[in-house]
Design goal:
2 domains; Arc Repressor Mutant, subunit A; 64% helix; 9 helices; 197 residues; Tetracycline Repressor, domain 2; mainly alpha; single chain
Length: 197
């Protein structure tokens, strides 16, 4: 069902945010394959020309909508334990899969399997930067002595998201805080500081 148009003419960020919300709503309702610029415009309560002035087609529109809605990548914070930052990043990933954000969740992830171009773009522009940030958090933890150097193996950054995704696929339920903590333990292999005995 289309959203009603906002009284008065929306411009700039206000209109873009409405279009992003409409795009994500259309993704959730119809999937990427059946998403159309007409449908997004109708849901956003705007004209199709407003979309085409900003995006040449639905793929760049969907990518921008996802960037808008997804939690930002984790940043190493010298005032925050690296483990806490890692836990926050994995919890945010869990929330995305569980549909607790504006992103359509698992349905969109499965949908991408049938859209190779979209999957490649999503991996390059959204997934990889987040994995690189997780690697940076792990390196910071090693540098500060919170983790042993063993955590810097090639698959470390991917292990946590993979375990969360696998659990969701197997059970259909998002992991709770205790399970997220166990995932973090698995990523870190319970090595702790390299200076401990």
């Amino acid at each position: 069902m289309a959203e009603s148009a906002t009284p008065g003419r929306r411009r700039g960020a206000e209109l873009e945010h409405a279009i992003y919300r409409a795009t994500l709503g259309e993704l959730a309702a119809h999937g990427y394959g059946r998403l159309t610029m007409d449908g997004v415009a109708a849901r956003a309560g705007t004209g199709k020309a407003a979309l085409y002035r900003r995006w040449p087609g639905k793929q760049p529109l969907v990518m921008d909508a996802l960037r808008h809605a997804l939690p930002p990548p984790p940043e190493p914070d010298p005032k925050r334990p690296a483990r806490e930052t890692l836990t926050g990043a994995l919890t945010a990933f869990r929330d995305v899969l569980a549909g607790r954000t504006l992103v359509p969740g698992m349905g969109f992830i499965v949908d991408m399997l049938h859209e190779p171009d979209l999957r490649a773009l999503f991996t390059e522009e959204i997934v990889m930067p987040r994995l690189e940030r997780i690697e940076a958090v792990l390196r910071e933890g090693v540098h500060r002595g919170e983790f042993g150097p063993e955590v810097l193996h090639p698959l470390a950054a991917r292990t946590g998201p993979a375990l969360i995704l696998q659990s969701f696929l197997l059970t259909g339920e998002p992991l709770g805080p205790r399970e997220i903590d166990l995932v973090v333990d698995t990523v870190l292999r319970r090595t702790g500081s390299p200076h401990r005995s």
